[in-house]
Amino acid sequence: MNPSLLTLFPAALRGVLDRLPGDAVQTLEEIRVRENRPLEIGYGSRSAFVRPDGSLTDDYRSAYAPGKEEVRALLERVTNHSLYAVEEELRRGYVTVPGGHRIGLAGRAVLDKGAVAHLRDIAGFNVRIARARVGFGAQVLPGLLDHGARTIRHTLIVSPPQQGKTTLIRDLARCISAGEWHHPRAIGWRGRKVGIVDERSEIAACERGVPTFDLGPRSDVLDACPKAEGIMMMVRSLSPEVIVVDEIGRPEDAAALNEAIHAGVRVLATAHASNIADIFARPVLSQLAADGVFGAYVLLSRNAGLVGHRIVSAEEAALEASGRGRMRAGAVPRDAPQDAPQAAPVTVKTRPMPAIRSPDVRARGDEERA
Amino acid sequence: MLKFIGIALVLFAGTMIGFVQAARYAARPKQIRHVLHALQRLETEISYGQTPLAQALDRIAGAVPPPISPLFKAIARALSNETARTGETVREIWEREIAGRWADTAMRAPEQEALLRLGSTLGASGREDQLKHIRLAMLQLQAEEATARDEQQRYEKLSRSLGALGAALIVILIV
Predict the structure, then answer these.
(1) How many CB atoms lie within 10 A of CB B2?
(2) Is the peptide bond before A283 cis (omega within 30 degrees of 0)?
(3) Which residues, 6+ apart, have CB-to-CB distance to A162 below 8 Å?
(4) What is the pLDDT at residue A357?
């Protein structure tokens, strides 16, 4: 297993994870650690529990359960021994560690004036493993080119969680800044200046300001910067030709994107949504889509462990969204069968409700009478 | 002749023992002061810089004189490198390094206890909480510094002359 990732874990957990079978390690997606509960991993679109000897099982009772001390040590390592320095991240519920792996945290929320101030008693971790998949962008990029302007169209990458949005956007940023357009008519185009606003330190996984993932020679990264503010900072001072942002969805993001677009910058963004209809159902995205901001949409979906993609132009998207009748309500789990049988309808017998008289009414009536 | 050499040696040794003892009395409040300065810097690093603990301790080690600096340096090094291998917690490293290097300092048990207590919470809670613990440790150390100064005034000169006089007593008894 990846040694830099293994070093995150305390000795006992590391011993277990180090003995995972090879094929699971190859396709490892998440490691879920919960205090005093079975250790679970997600790999190749499946999940399994891990026995103390590293073998996989479906029986959670025989799985390894990390104890309190291990969880405490893991939290220390994850926060670089400095919980006080990641309070902002705790407020959002995850930290990003060197290597770009994101660790989601579950614990008890501490409120301050009604808003989440940070988390304490953290007892659940979801280690999501980041992978640079060089070559992913090469399949998608030719469909996004704007041949007139020798750059890309404004693009929104859409998929449910865990389908590889960040991986794709990372490789696209690399291709664009390196000038690897992967299209016969684009030979001789130069790379573009790419500005990456990396609010969650996932795209670039910066370590002291330097990206650990290969993002090509012409990329600038604003690390840990809020998207809306970061886009404006980019436009003002770093003169990007393409701006890359992850997971837009708030109104201020949309406002900043509009500013950037009208400043002559191309935008490459991602968003959570399961299909085109979902984009038009989310308030901020639908406004952007209705304004005709995006020239192309990339839809990601995973089948049998392979990530597929579909590029939809803005006109097709508008057409598709108008036929909303076929829309699915919410996303389905990835391992759900394609045509799941409808669940048998539950019938609930109606029975007459006993008449309840509120005592208050009578009391008031008495008073009135008195 | 031989006798005189012996007398001179005994007198010299006794005086030296007295001086070393006096130096320890003088060094203790000074070292506590250095630790206080270090904690003050740590407070700044945590509250304004939000520097990760290993980096903060490393910077502090550069700013205070020995024998305090090697102590922080060792903890910082263990935090940034060794934990990757051993998976130790801050508390374990802090306790190990302080116990191992305490003999190099002139400080006593109460100061050690205050520092150990600080180590068990360091890095494991939010900013406000960290600052509270650091301030508590500083208060304790300030109290210890006052007693150490008091002892220095009382015993520094005394132990110096006691060493010489003790040696003289031995000489008189033996001769």
Answers:
(1) 6
(2) no
(3) A29, A128, A334
(4) 62
To probe the interface with A, which of B51, B77, B88, B89 has the most A CB atoms within 10 Å?
Answer: B89
pLDDT digits (tens, 9 = 90+) for B115-127: 888 888 887 777 8
pLDDT category at A244 given cuts 50, 70, 90 is very high
Nearest to B126 among A14, A81, A83 (CB): A83
Co-location of A203 and A93 in the same domain:
no
Given a cut of 70, whether residue B169 has pLDDT beyond it is: yes
Nearest to B123 among A14, A82, A118 (CB): A82
Q: Tell me, what amino acid is at A17?
A: L
The CA distances from residue B150 to A1, A121, B37, B103, in Å, are 59, 44, 20, 22
B127 touches chain A (CB under 8 A): yes
Based on the fold, state whether residues A115 and A177 are members of the same structural domain: no
C-alpha closest to that of A69 among B53, B92, B85? B92
Cross-chain Cβ contact B85/A10 below 8 Å = no
- Contact check, Cβ <8 Å, A10/B87: yes
Q: Are residues A192 and A267 in the same domain?
A: yes
Would you put residue A182 in left (φ > 0), alpha (ψ -120 to 50) or beta? left
User: What are the beta bridge partners of residue A299?
Assistant: A158, A310
Could you tell me if residue A357 is inside a domain? no
Q: Which domain holds residue A297?
A: 136-322
pLDDT at A326: 45
Dihedral (CA of B50, B53, B57, B59) sign = negative
C-alpha angle with apex A73: A72 to A75, nearest 5 degrees? 65
Residue A353: CA count within 13 A, CB half-sphere: 3
| Contact state of A84 with B84 under an 8 Å Cβ cutoff | no
**Hey, where are the domains in chain B?**
31-155
Q: Does the residue A341 lie in any domain?
A: no
Length of chain A equals: 370
Asked if the ipTM is above 0.90, the reply is no
Q: How far is A11 from chain B (nearest CA, A)?
A: 5
Question: Which residue type sits at B34?
Answer: H
pTM of whole model > 0.80? no
Q: Are residues A8 and A51 in the same domain?
A: yes
- A326 CB burial (10 A radius; 0-12, 13-18, 19+): exposed
Is A141 found in the same domain as A123?
A: no
Q: How confident is the model at residue A160 (pLDDT cuts 50, 70, 90)?
A: confident
The mean of the pLDDT values for chain A is 81
Record: contact A84-B79, CB cut-off 8 A: no
Overall average pLDDT of the B128-136 stretch: 89
